[in-house]
Amino acid sequence: MLYIQKKNKLIVNINQNKNLNIEKRNKIISDLINYLNSKKTKTSLNNKQYQLNYKKIFKIMIDPGHGGEDPGAIGKNNTYEKNIVLQVSQRLQSIIQKKSYIKVYMTRNKDIFVSLKHRILEARRKKIDLFISIHTNSVKNKLAQGASVFILSKKSAINVAEKHLLNTKYSIKKFIGIPSSGDYYLDNTMFDLLQNSTMYESFKFGNKILNSLGKITKLHKNTLNYAGFAVLKYPEIPSILIELAFISNLQEEMKLNNPYYQQKIAEAIFHGIQLYLFNK
Length: 280
Description:
Layout: E1 2-6, E2 9-13, H1 22-38, H2 47-53, E3 58-64, H3 81-96, E4 102-106, H4 116-125, E5 130-137, E6 148-152, H5 154-166, H6 172-176, H7 184-214, E7 225-227, E8 239-246, H8 250-256, H9 259-277
Parallel strand pairs: 3-4, 3-5, 5-8, 6-7
Antiparallel strand pairs: 1-2, 6-8
Helix pairs in contact: 1-7, 3-9, 5-7, 7-9
């Protein structure tokens, strides 16, 4: 199987399985392309034009990390990561709720433990368009500082794809409702197309958030970070993980407890969302 993606064209050449029904193959490919096109959330309209002319409601899920019995990182002054990220997430939720074209969800809205599996299932059940996990960082070096944005690493993406091939629970039908073709090469290619498209959107989204954060706070790195966090592994949902600051740094711990700073961070994240959605 060979597939080539160009700006406005997808070429798929299937020659391994001559017995594959051509109509079924074309239907599956067409369904996937239509799905990917429907997930293109960006528009050149401005906010007011969008509300007047466009019907799509964007679904965003905010994921405050940790919670309940899991405190996350703890600062020198006994600041709990789980509390800080919930407070910032609630501020971000409050901002988003004022926008009629966005529906916002939270994986938790109080100090409770929510498993990673449940967070992922909820995002899929609600057919989320963008997933934002919010955390704070902590390392032994007490001088480390700055915000970071993570997206899925290529190595982790390959591992997810391998699980897809070996286990039917990772079927593309499980993710977006398109049935398997029964052909190994075609199914592999369809999953690859879906995952690559999602990773590309995560990259663009992550950069918008990183640039927006960089205007109001110090960045740990001026580029995106790559990791294999479980909440980044959705093959169908653009996902990012934000480390707001280093709670292990005394000065940053103090800032994280400041309501004014929390609000500025929430506003910066929302500004990045706007830049992504409206293609600016």
